[in-house]
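This is your field. Please look over both lines of this record.
***
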Amino acid sequence: MAADIPSFNLNTGAKLPSVGMGCWQGQPGPGRDNELVDALVKAINVGYRHLDTATGYQNEGEVGQAVRQSGVPRSELFVTTKLRPGGVHDPVKEFENSFKALDIDYIDLWLLHWPQGFTEDDGGFGAGQACGLEHQKHLGPTFNETWAKMEDIFLNSHKGKVKAIGVSNFSIKNLEILAKTSKVTPAVNQIEAHPYLPEHELVEYCKQKGIHITAYSPLGQYNASIHDDKDLNEIAKKHDVTAATVALSWAVQRGTSVAPKSTNEKRMKQNITLIKLSDEEMKQVNNISHDPKRSTRLNFFVIDKETGKILGWTMEEMGWDVGFLEEPGKSTKKIAEGK
């Protein structure tokens, strides 16, 4: 039985469940494939109806297997996957590989994982030099060119096999660049977002453009800051829930969907059980990022601490104003400064 959570309408008319299951479970290893399938089947049994994966996660096959094993009709499930930065040189091949690996009749949502691509393909996210912007055109396709190929796959060559296309990790700056040539408005922009990085301006911008926001790492990325936060725990205590429940409920209540990750059944159930926050409580969470010691990105996986670049791009090229605090909650020393 599906969980009693709201859904959001995409600009395609499709409904996206507000709480999905993120499928990035770290590096694959012996026994991990079966563990992931079992965990995802469990998540579907608990009530999840949205699974969020990516070619770069190297587990599309396992996600597809979980969908087929679940016993839930395909029409009741929403599956997202993503075109990795290393695959931008041949989006058709990448889509066909994802379609074959998932083996679930169709893909509900296909995202351009990052605005940047890479000159070399290592089978994962990519390697070599980053490309994607006009001044890097000599290195590889711009994200406008990659998007045009995704549009053709969606509208023409593979019509019906993918129900919607979107982007991920796009700032207002890069969405504006994309809009100059796009024929299809992205259905979704999936971004890092949580109380320490609310991205209020970007969320409002996308709302005005008809682009839905999905928050990845809505509870932080391998970081306890959100779970230990004083304001979130103060609110949680009033409702007899966890700080995580407060953070996820805040996200959905403000109109963004979320894709938290967990293989623990108890936490799965907690993450999909939302509460109603008062206007004052919503304001309290909104104000957390006003604290310079808590205004930070938490997805440290993407940043080179020596250069301060994000998958080969500068903060300015990403269009990001908020960088990474070295010790969230303790210091304001930045690994990468905003513009």
